[in-house]
């Protein structure tokens, strides 16, 4: 089945919140997932891998510590918190490239590279061990094969978008990944009370009646 990007964004936001991330990061994850789908990636599948890793349980440990031009932690980095930090501190790329070590689900960094490019009004490049990408903030030039395991990424200003990814306005997510997001999204729904069940069945009386 195909889904609109609006549907994917809404589901991704609730699923990320249901996985334990705060609403602010959930909004960032939803926009990132939408952008990945727009660029032809299965953003739902990528987000599902981020969420089932349970980084949210110990998010501080999985967020990068900066040592000048190297960002790292003692454990694999969450691409959501890492990407958000890259967006917030994009201006540092004007001073020097940044190496981000041991990033889980590395393809999930791509929307945040695009955010940095847009904020700087520059083209920004990212390189992993076996893949690379370039974005001007709107479109993406991608080559190689991005691994599912953690990767070290080198990010810098420069490059050229010569063969942008074809964009699509419909998402075709992996069924298992979609189910994972739907299950996590259910964690954001308040449990039914006797009063809400009565109202849902058509009883319009006040709960205090």
Helix and strand topology:
Layout: E1 3-4, H1 5-18, H2 23-38, H3 43-52, E2 65-67, E3 70-72, H4 79-88, E4 98-103, H5 110-120, E5 124-127, E6 131-135, E7 140-144, E8 151-157, E9 170-171, H6 175-185, H7 194-200
Parallel strand pairs: 3-4
Antiparallel strand pairs: 1-9, 2-3, 4-8, 5-6, 5-8, 6-7
Helix count?
Answer: 7
Please give the alpha-carbon distance between the first and last residues. 45 Å
Largest beta sheet: strand ordering: 2-3-4-8-5-6-7
Reading the helices and strands in chain order gives EHHHEEHEHEEEEEHH
Q: Helix/strand/pairing class, anyone?
A: alpha+beta
Largest sheet: 7 strands, mixed
Rg (CA only): 19 Å
Poorly predicted ranges (pLDDT <50, ≥5 residues)?
A: 195-209
In helices, the fraction of residues equals: 25-40%
Strand segment tally: 9
How would you describe what is shown here?
There is one protein chain. With 209 residues, the protein is α+β, with helices and mostly antiparallel strands. The longest helix has 16 residues. The relative contact order is 0.17.
Quick overview of this protein structure:
By secondary structure, this protein is an alpha+beta fold. The chain has helices at residues 5-18, 23-38, 43-52, 79-88, 110-120, 175-185, 194-200; strands spanning 3-4, 65-67, 70-72, 98-103, 124-127, 131-135, 140-144, 151-157, 170-171. Strand 3 (70-72), helix 4 and strand 4 (98-103) form a beta-alpha-beta unit.
């Amino acid at each position: 089945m195909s889904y609109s990007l609006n549907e994917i964004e809404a589901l991704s936001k609730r699923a990320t919140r249901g996985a334990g991330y705060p609403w602010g990061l959930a909004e960032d994850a939803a926009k990132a997932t939408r952008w990945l789908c727009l660029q032809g990636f299965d953003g739902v599948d990528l987000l599902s891998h981020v969420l089932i890793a349970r980084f949210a349980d110990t998010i501080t440990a999985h967020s990068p510590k900066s040592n000048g031009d190297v960002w790292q932690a003692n454990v694999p980095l969450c691409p959501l918190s890492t990407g958000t930090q890259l967006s917030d501190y994009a201006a540092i790329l004007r001073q020097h490239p940044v190496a981000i070590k041991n990033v889980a689900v590395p393809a999930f960094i791509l929307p945040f590279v695009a955010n940095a490019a847009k904020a700087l009004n520059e083209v920004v490049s990212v390189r992993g061990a076996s893949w690379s990408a370039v974005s001007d903030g709107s479109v993406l030039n991608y080559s190689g094969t991005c691994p599912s395991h953690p990767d070290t990424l080198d990010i810098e200003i420069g490059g050229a978008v010569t063969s942008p990814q074809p964009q699509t306005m419909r998402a075709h997510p992996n069924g298992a990944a979609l189910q994972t997001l739907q299950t996590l999204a259910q964690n954001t729904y308040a449990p039914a009370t006797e009063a809400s069940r009565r109202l849902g069945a058509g009883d319009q009386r006040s709960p205090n009646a």
